[in-house]
């Protein structure tokens, strides 16, 4: 699971209103190399919940001096775009779980796949 | 806060400590329930240790050290990344002793201290090592006569991989069941008597098995994940591994999977859930990744990478002993039980619970079993879907709800694509291909409302068995869209011929419908629930005779490339059945206008229909979200 996906995922446990972002508890993380596309990355940024990304990076211990708020004119800051590319697309959680911040319910991540299925009465 | 450190003091807890312990145990039960683990109220020799898992940072060694204080440990299962472990003691007394002594025990692991909570559980899988001696192993291997008989030759051909031999009763691969009238002469080889008597004496079984299947796996061979047919065999099932070790994968319907190393001369006992609910299989591989430590022996694969090594597969012969079942199965897992489901052929469900159960058996489980074959037949994107995807502005967020093998996730690289599917196996294929995907149900997608610029649902909604559920699926798609966002939905059409054009699905088959399939639509039974129509089994590549059907899928183990757009591997109704098992998938095929009506009148609000068309045997609708979400 990449952090791009994590940024979109939310808890859908019944009755939960504050289920975003899901807390990441990773036991195995991998870093892959992916071709950098500045345009793609800068188009992605406005679609993200920036705070959730910062938190996610912290949970993985990879804050890497990402700014806590978006800097203006980030589209032209190559170094910044590279950092975003890395944290969003190259870091992958292979094993671990995602925890709903409100209910505590844990969704397992196994072999890179988050399993978000709820059981019948949830 | 923590309770005592040694045994004697634990019996003299204060009232507050006892109260706290009770509450904490209750909390751990809730967590376990979320994991699908139900605790037993009576003492057993099997316990689950909460907080004693690899997911808590507790190592196998340190846990084992503590557990041994309770009694002789027969086996320890430490599932990767889980906050618990399973321990089996040599006797119920030992289990009870461990419970009394160790419950609430604090464990120091590296820099942290965790509190271990113990609960009794019913048994699942037991692995008994060194169950036979090397001499016995040799005797047993020599006892199997591999000289092929004429019947065997067709079976061999069908299986294409491992060698198989049956004793006692013949196992049929076309329906995955036993021919209970076909008693094979000779019974089980005499060489097996000693070990079976031992099983009886040790209490692993209460009756002697009367069926034996011997499988011989060369390196690179395996067996697809499956549950042994409920109606054919009792519980438990014993499997003896000879000649070489291997790794067996167990998978729970909810997606959890556990890999277990089966050493040479070990006996695997599958009981209860592990026999009736979890699938087991062996991936066809030449190497396995196994724990290094011989002391640990077998046990569950850990994610501790420093402790793993590659093990080359040798030729493994397994002896699977089973007791033939003569009365229908009445297990606690009806959704996966052929006795309980097929004794009354399925009818179109009304109640939500029935709908879920039907879909579990005739959609979810089927896709899990056929996933790799299915994926190999799903390689060409539908052109109109492709056009839709390419029309999305760069930087759009696209969700593919029911993404299957992910083939639409890479069509438009300018778009941010994420997929989800109900089948964990199919999602695994997506991730292996580098796509972003997660396991989820289409009725409850864990993405925020209004977060997507576009959604697609291609060949998904026709798997829901009630109108309410189909509508709910569309509403969920709409919820995900931002205002102005678009969705594209494709479902199988009842009218395969449209504008005098036969769909590809029909063209590739023999002409005309099979009249024999026409048993009366309304089957009256003695029961109350009389007027629900029966769900017929459809004949592939013919016209659909009703809207609710079971469509066969003939599984090919050697995943040949198939062109079929609809049902995949069907080469005509006369194709011989000995290819492999047949699976039935439930479909509700849509009539002209049905999908469109569902999307605009009543059931779904806040959207307008942009386009509505027929494409290669599918009814298709493109929607645009006009109003925001209410919640």
Automatic annotation (TrEMBL), chain A:
Keywords: Cytoplasm, Nucleus. InterPro entries: Trm112, Trm112-like. Belongs to the TRM112 family. Its main location: cytoplasm. GO terms for molecular function: protein heterodimerization activity. It comes from the Eukaryota. This is Multifunctional methyltransferase subunit TRM112-like protein. SUPFAM superfamilies: Trm112p-like. PANTHER family: MULTIFUNCTIONAL METHYLTRANSFERASE SUBUNIT TRM112-LIKE PROTEIN (PTHR12773:SF0), UPF0315 PROTEIN-RELATED (PTHR12773). GO terms for biological process: rRNA (guanine-N7)-methylation; tRNA methylation. Signal peptide: none annotated.
